[in-house]
Amino acid sequence: MDRVADGRQTRNAERTRRAVLDAAVQVILDKGAAVTLAQVAAAAGVSKSGLIHHFGSRDQLVVALVEDTHERFRETVRGYLDLSENYPGKMLRAYVRALCAGSAEAATARDFTSAPMWGGLYTIPAVAPVMEENAAWWDEQLALDGISPERILIVRRAAEGIAMAAVYGEQDESSISTARDLLLELASEGTFRTPL
Prior knowledge:
Blueprint: H1 2-31, H2 37-44, H3 48-54, H4 58-79, H5 90-100, H6 104-112, H7 115-118, H8 127-143, H9 149-167, H10 173-186
Helix pairs in contact: 1-2, 2-3, 4-5, 4-6, 4-8, 5-6, 5-9, 5-10, 9-10
């Protein structure tokens, strides 16, 4: 009987934690980085003490949110991996698709990675090591992709720039699609065929 109760308790704790993290993203997107635990708790439908049970402080919540966001973005990119592409640049092309695809998933990825969302959170000292670890992880994954570091740099930063422009409403889906196609071509070794 205890095992069933423990299993239910674990599932409830996981659901509560997920609800808090999802609510925190929405509150930050709506109100900016100066959110309070009370605002997040209200949005998650839990008490402030319930939130504090899972995340002892605002900083702990923010660190967990940043870690969760990084993992969710990695999962999104993995979802765009095309296993039939057995040539260099596979992960970089998935990265481009994740940020520049014309889908709700891509729009969510752009929200999760947008500077307006995270700008104020970077000032929290505990966030810096999490950001550095994530950047190192992406550098390592993309370096294993089998294409030149210069090509990776250009394509990666261009995809991020297009995603940011989309967040600010400066790019429509047609221009994002055109840019995505060009970047996917650049993310493959060989000659750039598309005329500019």
